[in-house]
Amino acid sequence: MHAVMNTLTIARPDDWHLHLRDGAAMRDVLPHTAARFARAIVMPNLKPPVTTTELALAYRDRILAVLARGTRFEPLMTLYLTDNTRPEEIARAKLSGAIHAVKYYPAGATTNAGSGVTAIENCFPVLAAMEKAGMPLLVHGEVTDPDVDVFDRERVFIERTLAPLIERFQALKVVMEHITTSEAAAFVTGAPPRIAATLTPQHLLLNRNALFAGGVRPHHFCLPVLKREVHRRALVAAATSGNPKFFLGTDSAPHARHTKENDCGCAGMYTAHAGIELYAEVFAAAAALDRLEGFASQYGADFYGLPRNTEKITLLREPWQVPASVPFGADVLVPMRAGAAIEWRIAAA
Ligand code: NCD
Ligand code: ZN
User: Fold this and answer.
1) How far, rounded to the nearest angstrom, does the alpha carbon of residue 306 sit from its chain's CA centroid?
2) Ligand 1 atom closest to 110 (CA)
3) Can you give the pTM of this predicted structure?
4) Most buried residue among 30, 102, 173, 303 by CB atoms closer than 10 A?
């Protein structure tokens, strides 16, 4: 029998999929991430989207400018792929040293994806340039076809778009972001080493019943939408397997409370306030705490060709209460587990 572990020291983790937003909103959420993670891959779905090296570097400067003095946190920037992205932009991005990936949103698939790609064929010259530069493609893997059931959109995307894409571009590195199905876990497991996936805390902790527990629960709505329990179990198995293709990406996606508690509520869950603690719950429940460090602090860096962090953090099994809301610019947002307990905390440094 395993002894129950109540403390765990691991290398400082990184978040390989994060929404920071901008301005006053960013100022409120960034400290949550910077207190836990050494680095984060910062999503480019601002309004307007971050489509060029110049825009990404300016966004990076705005992030660095609001970091508290003495905070060591490195934002890893991304470009937002559109039908009009030019192959030359990839060389510029690579040369900057600050841009680490390109994000592919199928047009209309999720929050601020209106300028996304209408047909991936339009981007083949850019993908060829990325393949050459060793620049990973980060994929929001859902079809937008209204005839496809919303719970099937990830599976159908793999068949229609992703499998042919990685076949066509034999050296392109691809991260299937925030996977939500057993089909995605199996696909990534069986794909070559250049194909990886990130996993969010909500898809590891919740199934789709959480959307309707006693009534409609807008704060559990994100995209891709939560799936059945059988899928959640497959995702936990992938995350805790020790397979380096699977690593941490919170997809923490802050939205003002009134935009989610709304006639047409926004997609996105906020998890940055407990961005490593929630995963500790998952790994503890699976009796796999010894595998959390690889998932949270090693495999992502290895995939991106970046050094592993050497600084350590310690997690304690010591419950704390999540506030009902947290400030978000002129508004507030409702974080995951609002008003309830999280089992793990980070020990003061
Ligand atoms: C994200 C957001 O709000 O920017 N929302 C979400 O539901 N995950 C966008 C995304 O990653 O799909
Ligand atoms: Zn996201």
Assistant:
1) 18
2) 12
3) 0.98
4) 102
Q: Which residue has the tokens 């978040």?
A: 15
> 70-94 pLDDT, tens per residue?
889 999 999 999 999 999 999 999 9
Specify the CATH number of the domain 13-311: 3.20.20.140
Average pLDDT over residues 47-56: 98
CB atoms within 10 A of CB 139: 27
Which ligand is located closest to the Cα atom of residue 20? 1
pLDDT at 3 over 70: no
Task: Looking at the CA of residue 266, tell me the nearest atom of ligand 1.
Answer: 3
How far is ligand 1, taken at its centre, from the CA of residue 112, in Å? Answer: 8
**Residue 19 and residue 253 in contact, taking contact as beta carbons nearer than 8 Å:** yes
Task: List, by residue number, the catalytic residues.
Answer: 251
pLDDT at 2: 54
- The candidate with the shortest Cα–Cα distance to 79, out of 118, 106, 49, 109, is 49
Q: Whose CA is nearest to atom 5 of ligand 1?
A: 268
CA 278/CA 15 separation, integer angstroms = 13
* Residue 202, token pair as written in the block: 């909500």
Position in ligand 1 atom list of the atom nearest CA 221:
7
d(CA 207, CA 324): 22
Question: Any idea where the domains of the chain sit in the sequence?
Answer: 13-311
* Ligand showing the shortest atom-to-Cα distance for residue 105: 1
pLDDT over threshold 60, residue 193 = yes
Q: Give one word for 23, left, alpha or beta, with left for phi > 0 and alpha for psi -120 to 50.
A: left
